[in-house]
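Final report, results section. Input specification for complex C-07:
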Amino acid sequence: MTTDTVAAPLEAAPVTTPTARVALVGNPNAGKTALFNALTGSRQKVANYAGVTVERKEGVLTTPAGRQMRVLDLPGTYSLRARSPDEVVTRDAVLGKLSGEDAPEALICVADATNLRLVLRLVLELKQVGRPFVLALNMYDIAQRQGLRIDLERLSQEIGAPIVTTVATRKRGLSELLEQVEAIVAARKPELAAENVWHEPTPSEIRAAHAQAERIFKACVKPPERPDTITGKIDGVLLHPVAGLLILVALMFVMFQAVFTWAAPIMDGIDGLFAAVVEFANAHLPAGLLTSFVADGLIAGVGSVLVFLPQILILFFFILLLEDSGYMTRAAFLLDKLMGVAGLHGRAFIPLLSSFACAIPGIMSTRVIDSKQDRLTTILIAPLMTCSARIPVYTLIIGAFIPRTTVWGGLSLQGLVMFGLFAVGIVSALVVSTIIRRIFWRGTVEPFMMELPTYRWPEPRNVLMNLWTRARIFLSRAGRIIMPLMVLVWVLSTFPYPPEGATGPAIDYSIAGRLGQFLAPLMAPIGFNWQMTVALIPGMAAREVAVAVLGTVYAVGGEDGETGALSTLLKNQWSLATALSFLAWYVFAPQCLPTLGVVKRETNSWVWPTVMFVYMVGLAYLAAFIVYHTAVALGAG
Amino acid sequence: MVEAFSPSLEAPLEADVRPLATARRGDRGVIVRVTGVSGAAEAVAADELERRLLEMGFVEGAAIEVLHEGLFGRDPIAVRVDDTRVALRRREADAVSVKFDGQ
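Structure output:
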């Protein structure tokens, strides 16, 4: 479709053509991110805006005419009147007031062609800003299929901006869009830019804008001949008061069973591969310090973390599907009242669900919650959601201590235990939230208002691209945080060497061993041995590190030549009561420094990470204590 | 702004104006007034709630239909405002007055 290969005009020689800066704005659910993905492909960078933790997504592209363009994907909004940190970024970026960012030279306003009313009001606000923009009528194929008729010429006149129809998911209309953007960037003379007359509208100004938008809408848009009825029919089932909730519970259950069972063969493969590599290294490298470092420190450490990538990807895959299909807001609708009982806002559902993958993106996405108290409550309980970094720990312990049998007609017992651990996390989060909102912050109720978008088939390409981004983030995290820690742990558990004639395993004499033994009396009442205590210390960097550390501690501490799987080792070394106590600890413990760091950054205070750390350690110790002593009393000691 | 509304023959002209909060599933009508709700328990000022409602399309003259109700206390509700579907709590819906069609 990029047939427009006319040579660039003379005055625009390649060397002098500066990179253009463009920002995407629009209502949520207008396909803005799909358009961003279609425009920039894999040339994207995800980071944070300077000083705030709003996710900054920028991509680079080359227009058909050969100009470089930097495209910024701004958070979706209904209005420039910002209410949440996300919307503040959008407003400031549009106004060119965002610190650390150059003002965009042009805006692309992305609109759902089938749902123009609300976006027209946003367009009128953009017009007041005076920055040139192009209106992209996205999902135009759906509008055509519905027989919706839009008088593009008239609409363009009314809003005073060029209009391009696009279908982001099929890459239609992209070169036309870029041409228009280039044209307005080229035509723009900064000194002649329209004056910015935007200010926060009063209610009566919003009404006036609505009236104007309505007039434009009536003049330019003929209602669809075949309006979408499928969304209504699906909602009839999915939002049914009883059936809807049951379907939601079933969906969550399937999701967690899938995370546990689908990933198993791939994980076994990765596990086997790394075991083979370790064996190969031990066999072919000269015995000594270096080999121990490479095999036991590096390879084993990285392997025991990489093995969980499949589960994390499956979980993100489901979350992305739920988001892209439009179901996520329905889930918030179904759960609002239930969550309200615990003092939570329905919007907290999305951050909390994200926290099942990782509390860090979860805590960051609490920015969609406007009220400070609602937001803080959600932040404080987000780490109680079972994040994917706990899955390695759970998997290891469940694999070692829970028999691989099926109960109740084919349900995996291991899967059920896993589901139970997730459930304990959720229930305790609700209890903690109730306590916070009923005792500490009895108070105000934030409005709940959310658009329920039209259902759409998730676009495979989009889902895969987002999944790939998640995988990259996980791998770079594994590289940057976990790898150095593995090296550190290897050093700690290798040096100093045991004295001549020592009888115990070498690790007993190392720094790690001594530190573990020093702290062990503190953890003895909950059934932890010193190896476990050792594992908890570097496990503060990231929960899954504990697994790798246990691997290192036991591989190093084991007898020569013994390379049995870690789970077999644990089975021999731990009692069932200890294993259950360890699981209970991991449901609650704040075993993740990055999370505490993010809380500090999000709340701009050390108070909240401290509160979080103290209450979570307290809960963890209490839970582990009760579980351990109950299990011992029942004969599992 | 209210040209879309034509009262049914049985209904008296000023008959059925009530807050949206009292509506049941299937009720339809036209929005006649959007205000805010003020009170100590509200996190946002009445004026702010009014603006948020307006921005989501709750504006005088908009056609409205209650599509779904939640399980517990029939709360929250999902409504169609012109052609947008919006979920909101009855608490906020109290700020929207609707002239309902006669049954």
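Strands of chain B lie at 17-19, 28-34, 63-69, 77-81, 84-88, 96-100. The mean pLDDT of chain B is 83. This concludes the modelling results for the funded period.
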